[in-house]
Amino acid sequence: MAEAESSSRDSRWYLKGMTALVTGGTRGIGHAIVEELAGLGATVHTCSRKEDELNGCLRDWASKGFRVSGSVCDVSSRPQREKLIETVSSVFSGKLNILLLDNKEFLDTVIARTPLRRPGEPKEVSSLVAFLCLPASSYITGQVISVDGGMTVNGFYPTHD
């Protein structure tokens, strides 16, 4: 009996037999998510706009024993890009704009308002995404989980002195 319970409990922490689609999986957060999900046993399909980059990642993942396939996708037209931005903005409530981190003044403001005093790393986001895909998280519904180093404790808008 104890062995059956242990086996059932362990299966909550694996994604074997499941398939995931991760767009933009060759860089940043997308790349980290592909690795997290594949490492937990999922079969993953991803895409990239750059064939060379995709092929390099696919070779690396195959060498790690991950089951990852990929395809080249092109979001080159303005309407396609706008649709993608709209989709991403709706998923993240308009709060995600990685491109702003290239702006030193903005980055300094973010760091000053973040209790951990640094921006997050892709692995710190991908681990939460992977957890929410696991059967172990099946009772978690309708939540907003901030992976922000404590920044939301200060609100999203700068205070004025």
Automatic annotation (TrEMBL):
Gene3D superfamilies: NAD(P)-binding Rossmann-like Domain. It comes from Nelumbo nucifera. This is Tropinone reductase homolog At5g06060-like. InterPro entries: NAD(P)-bd_dom_sf, SDR_fam, TR. The keyword Plastid does not apply. It comes from the Eukaryota. The keyword Ribonucleoprotein does not apply. One of its GO terms (molecular function) is oxidoreductase activity. Transmembrane segments: none annotated. Keywords: NADP, Oxidoreductase. PANTHER family: NADP-DEPENDENT MANNITOL DEHYDROGENASE, TROPINONE REDUCTASE. It holds the Pfam family adh_short_C2.
